[in-house]
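Running this now, will post back.
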Amino acid sequence: MQGASDTGALGWLLVTNGQACTLASRFIVHRDIYDEYTERLVSLMNDLKVGDAMDRSTGMGPVITEAAADRIMGMVDRAKGDGATLLAGGVRLEMPGFMIAPTLFGDVDNSSELGQEEVFGPVLSVLRFDHEDEAIALANSSRYGLAGYIHTNDLNRAFRVASAMETGNIWVNGGVAPAAANAPFGGYKQSGLGRVGGISGILEYTRTKNVQIRF
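Update: finished.
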């Protein structure tokens, strides 16, 4: 439920190469379509050209620094040790720059580091679910809550799940888009305090005062 179509999912790797706070990296996919979903993602990742971001034919560029690449690869290596199944990538590429192959893990334990921590790099993880309540529980079992995504053809389900998800921003049947200036943007839990944008953002810069007068 928290995720996207296969091409949409790959798109989240291409936006700043997975290095943005609202990009989805944990996909919660129904068991009935899990195998097909992951197979199509693997095929797309394997066809993706990684290289110089100034080259128009490049699909994905480097991460920002050597330190970032080392941190990401450390998480990748620990995920392997935690029992996640590496389906694609998982290696540094031998080319100039801080290049990491687009990486996909399946059968991720939601309590593991990969299931709980933001990678901030080109790494996606896929978890299975059987029932809507289970998907919501998995989505909410995190100390973070900035962004969530729902893909469904059932509008009632979209509203129901969006209401239950503990995230400050939710996109339904779409990818990341810049927050409108008149819409509040911010997170729940450990994903920050307060809001920017809209009336909620204006109120962050105000102080209210209660004056009571007795005549």
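The helical segments are 6-14, 31-47, 66-81, 113-116, 132-140, 155-164, 198-203. More later if anyone needs it.
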